[in-house]
Amino acid sequence: MLSLPFMQNALAAxxxxxxxxxxxxxxxxxxxxxxxxxxxxHSSFAxxxxxxxxxxxxxxxxxIFTTLAAVMIEYMRDSFKRYSEILMSVVMTLSVGIAIILVxxxxxxxxxxxxxxxxxxxxxxxxxxxxxxxxxxxxxxxxRFYNELIYSTFDEDGAKVSGIRVKTVNYIFALLMxxxxxxxxRITGILVISSLIVLxxxxxxxxxxxxxxxxxxxxxxxxIDVIAGLVLSYYLDSAPGGAIAIMSVAxxxxxxxxxxxxx
Length: 263
Known about the structure:
It is a multi-pass membrane protein. By secondary structure, the chain is mainly α. Helices cover about 80% and strands about 0% of the residues.
């Protein structure tokens, strides 16, 4: 299995995604913004469809479109705080509508299913380079704004009073969300990427450790889920998205049994 070039690319990209998703996911979960991850996953669908129609690499157009959607959500969330959940539904509906129109018109070819469910057969060196670039950039930015992100996550009003530029931090995080989700969909698929962002973090939280340790546990769980899911999908000859989703749920159940939060 490891001697096959496409599997080497898939495992390398999967490992990078497994590192990337919890770094973004832990802030989303603690901010109770899990719905944003699902919204941006649907936005990436529109980005992929646009790329297929105009003849540009779908991952590139997905990164651009999803990042713009993330910034738009952050702007509307800040301007219309009472209606943030409704506005996210608007963005999701708009994105899905654009994607359906383009796909149903026949302008986008059948390869759209590779992005819906993920595909280990089609991960190219270009995809791997893009995921690597996004992972490095996201890790560096999170490290640079680590304290600001933590402070604004737990107490946004207190962060503003202390002089932290919360709006700037939130917009930077929005950019990271959009880029991370759209860069990951080639492996995991659009339909399950939000679960990979949320479930490893939720599993790690069952152990009730500090923030940094919880993040470390989430990364370990994510790596296990992604690698095991890719290997399982290879032997089952199936799309990796479903296998990764099943592994994520399985590790979540195991963490609940090992260390239930109700204790």
